[in-house]
């Protein structure tokens, strides 16, 4: 049976082509570091309680934080050693408890202490328990549902599972590297395991339509899975967002501002599926992670396998270029956080570390240059697709008033009018009209700020507007709840 | 070198408090020569390479064929007129920037070039000066500068001089130079003719041949005659996305449509469609003035509506009014409707009610 289906892309968006410093097809394993800082809140879920004390000996793979009462998944020590301290630290604008472990750099880890039966013979409950104990269930925007409060919905409520590896960002982890050799079979098995846990789900693997070879291989391996489909999509930013996957694949509108889990959809990436496989088949707790070093700010762009909790310093110190100042960004060039404290550790949400040069040089006649290597939404540069584009942090121009060129509207994937909203917010016209014009539909992809020739921080203005509106007592529940029939726990639905 | 001069200028400003006011001028010059050193503050960490300067320069590049043809047909005096236009337009921009204490905006680079190109070749230089000053002040600055203006400044200036000096603006035209290097070696043409193709049609019902129209051998305004060049420039603009394709396309199509049917019903009043398309300032207006992003609607539907309105008005004015040319009036009129059209389209788009969606 034909498992491959091509989908038409959405309206708006922008294709980033040929940015220099794409991750290379190369995987380096970074062993256990001397010291790790493990945040007790990683990925989806609430912060868990530490169940170890300072001075305790821990093994890699031992659970050190767990809270079965609230929505969360257990957290493991990623190295073998001794608990040095338990501290609170600011981690991405949130106060999080960290367990600092000093280790002996041995690479061993403790297997999950559950029977190693073949998963096909296990009951669903056993599988769910194993998955929960391995900590893998905290992956994805809303966790993987099990009966152990790891997500906001229960496994039976999941109707669709999206596995995405589209690669619509400027920098993308290569599915080819993740699924090389045996890994591909592991991946397929991981999908089967998930199907068993989520019995009602139809599973879509979303790949870029450029991945011809990979998709053919996968098609061969999955020909008799009638619950599986390979969706090939145009790798246009922000296609990889859940908010865009649902309309393109299912043709339904999305309750913007909510998680896909609220409509019975779970979306995971390729690595998450591999982690599922490792947890169930190899009894491996979730202690390491593959991260792609991307961007021209690195000397090399390998994929690196690191233990969770490894300080950034350890990972990037050998790779950062030394000639220029660089800016290090987490996960996405468009929406990522700035990483300026290299002592912070890697947690389970990291997938890319991007470094681009800080560019503060002033070019002579910058606006008259042909711009062979310039990236732009417009075609005003003499550049071709195959010329490499080297991103930097310069804003390439002065801030000017909006000229209503409506490029921001053209690229906006959700079809709102960013410049109109931004102007209203700037003029302090905070009222229901903002809501009517869909300010809460904004998915924060930042494309509008990217394309604006007047360099207006549109996405930021829109965020400000949302915050001001919330102060005025309007919030997104009012735009969504009357029109959608949402699932999930009440506290995650905005029902008070 | 330039850097040193500029730094010297900045030092001077710092020392002398009175000169402080001229900071925008220096900033503008500085910005003109050098790109910015600013970097992004938060996400997105990397932004598009285009800026308003390049945006405007693209329009100027698209105008080059028209500009060259203007010089070719009407002599080097054209360059003189453009310089006048830039000087006076620039001065009024600078004065306002100083009064308002804001930066000088790049919009006048385009206005200062488009304006003279829409004038008849015989125009005296002081008319150019008055027109551009009026256009910049009343077309743009009274509304608060680029981005807030409702009307296209070049057009405001053009209409103002048309109404104030009707004799100068309509009566005499030069016969274009065509031999050899033509205008590149001459200050101005000497042969005077009295009518453009549109006028000829209106008074005598004679149609000028297509070839003459396409290549610009027929008399007309400076930059408006060489249709092929305009089309090349216009298509370039659309290709670069600086001009949206929707307005020119619907505009031209609707002119074609209205004049086609008009011609069928009353052949002696309506000129045939191809003639309509290739005469006067239609192509120039459609590609370079109607597409001005500031004064055209930002909604796509609005753009279509405007295109159709423009086409209709242009044909109507050409046929039924005392003026032979309707493009400028049509664009200016429709500019006035733009905010309303946008408002209606946006209201319609977001006024819909949704049904409950079940998953
Ligand atoms: S992209 Fe910038 S200049 Fe263009 S309409 Fe949007 S806000 Fe205005
Ligand atoms: S308005 Fe929001 S969704 Fe639209 S482009 Fe801007 S950031 Fe993206």
The CATH topology label of the domain at 4-16 and 113-281 in chain A is: Rossmann fold
The sequence of SSEs of chain B as H and E is HHHHHHHHEEHHHHHHHH
Query: Which regions of chain B contain 5 or more consecutive residues with pLDDT less than 50?
Result: none
CATH architecture label of the largest domain in chain B: Orthogonal Bundle
CATH class bucket of the domain at 4-16 and 113-281 in chain A: Alpha Beta
Q: Using the coordinates shown, work out and report the CATH topology of the largest domain in chain B.
A: Ammonium transporter fold
Count of distinct strands of chain A: 17
**Uncertain runs of chain A with pLDDT below 50, 5 residues or more?**
none
Largest sheet features of chain A: 5 strands, parallel
Q: Please indicate the count of domains of chain B.
A: 2
Protein structure class of chain B: mainly alpha
Order of helices and strands of chain A: EEEEEEEEEHEHHEHEHEHEEHEEHHHHHH
Mean pLDDT across the residues of chain A is 84
* Largest sheet properties of chain B: 2 strands, antiparallel
Content of β-strand of chain A: 15-25%
Q: What is the chains' assembly state?
A: heterodimer
State the CATH class of the largest domain in chain B: Mainly Alpha
- Strands of the widest sheet of chain B, in order across it, are 1-2
| Spatial order of the strands forming the largest sheet of chain A | 1-12-11-10-13
Work out the radius of gyration of chain B: 22 Å
Main traits of this protein?
heterodimer; A: 496 residues; alpha/beta; OB fold (Dihydrolipoamide Acetyltransferase, E2P); 5-stranded parallel beta sheet; 22% helix; B: 359 residues; mainly alpha; Ammonium transporter fold; 2 domains; 16 helices; binds iron/sulfur cluster
Commentary on this structure:
The complex is a heterodimer of chains A (496) and B (359). Chain A has 496 residues and is an alpha/beta fold. Chain A has 13 helices and 17 strands. In chain A, helix 3 (183-197) crosses helix 6 (270-281) and helix 9 crosses helix 12 (458-471). The longest helix of chain A has 15 residues, at 183-197. With 359 residues, chain B is mainly α. Chain B folds into two domains: 2-34; 52-348, Ammonium transporter fold. Chain B has 16 helices and two strands. In chain B, helix 12 (246-265) runs antiparallel to helix 14 (282-289). The longest helix of chain B has 24 residues, at 77-100. In chain B, 50% of the residues are buried. The model of chain B has no long low-confidence stretch (mean pLDDT 82). One iron/sulfur cluster is lined by residues 411-414, 416, 418, 442-448, 458-459, 462 of chain A. Residues 411-414, 416, 418, 442-448, 458-459, 462 of chain A line the site of one iron/sulfur cluster.
